[in-house]
Amino acid sequence: MDVSEAQREVRTVYMGGFMGQLVSGMLWLGSAAAATYATPRTAILLLIVGGFFIFPLTTLGLRLLGRPWKLGAANPFSGLGMQVAFVLPLCLPVVAAVGIHHLDWFYPAFMVVLGAHYLPFIFLYGMPMFGGLSFVLVGSGIALAHRVGGSFAGPAWITGGLLLVFAVLGLVLVRREQASRAGVQSQ
Fold first, then answer.
1. Closest to 158 in 3D by CA, of 121, 106, 114, 107
2. Which residue among 3, 40, 57, 99 has its CA within the 20 to 30 Å range from the CA of 155?
3. What are the pLDDT digits (tens) for 2-32?
């Protein structure tokens, strides 16, 4: 299996990142709601603990849709996907330190780390779209950390919305690719 075939399988199985970003976006929105209507502690715990369930919930969502839920044994990117997934939890001590120092920087710092986490997805999926998501998350995180005033929950609402927008974008791009391939194969 060459690189382009492996990337195509990743795009196809994971629907251009749709299901994972849908789960992540909903988690961020849940954390934003907790930050708005409960306490920052509840919101932070929800995001961190819930984050450990993103991949299992993504897999469950794919299975419920009757779709393949894992890469084939011949795909060399299974290990890369796992390595990329562990980048985020390994960066949580930095996010925690920032949040302890300045609570309003918790979500912006998390946005920066999340954006950096998405950079390898460009290669993993073969989709430049993830560069855009990375840039928007990192840039927004930096900008929101420098804002004066604003709500603690605001950056979480923004991140949840961005993740949902890019989830749909990834799905649309993969469906277009599949339709194009089907059209070429039928000729």
1. 107
2. 57
3. 999 999 999 999 999 999 999 999 999 999 9
Q: Where are the domains of the chain?
A: 3-180
Instruction: Please name the residue that has the structure tokens 């991140």.
Output: 159
Number of CB atoms found within 10 A of residue 5's CB: 13
Distances (CA, A) of 89 to 51, 62, 126: 8, 23, 24
Confirm if 56 and 164 have CB atoms less than 8 A apart: no
Rounded Cα distance between 139 and 65, Å, is: 34
CA angle at 19 for the pair 174 and 151, rounded to the nearest 5°: 115
Going by C-alpha positions, the residue among 17, 19, 26 that lies closest to residue 121 is 17
Residue that the structure tokens 């998350």 belong to: 137
Say whether 15 sits in a helix, a strand or coil. Answer: helix
Cβ neighbours of residue 132 under 8 Å, at least 6 residues apart? 166
Alpha-carbon distance values, 4 to 124, 128, 130, 132 (Å): 10, 14, 16, 20
Write the pLDDT tens digit of every residue in 63-111. Answer: 999 999 999 999 999 999 889 989 999 999 999 999 999 999 999 999 9
For 56, phi and psi rounded to 5 degrees? -60, -40
